[in-house]
Transglycosylase
Amino acid sequence: MIGALILGALVGWIAGKLMNVEGGLLRNIVIGVVGSFVGSVVFSLIGFHAYGLVAELIVGVVGACLFIWLGRKLF
């Protein structure tokens, strides 16, 4: 659980830097956790499954960037 929160914070921070979004720790965790879910769903639809920390990090960052992009388009 703690590892997932730390990974979510890292994913959210990296995606925030890539997408030029400012936010605090809680926002980074939420973006990272939701983004990791989005990324895993999208990548599983195309047949890619992340095994290992680096692959999970990449999938999470891509999913978080998609989540931020969708949020900008909808709101």
In short: The chain has a mean pLDDT of 93. DSSP finds three helices and no strands in the chain.
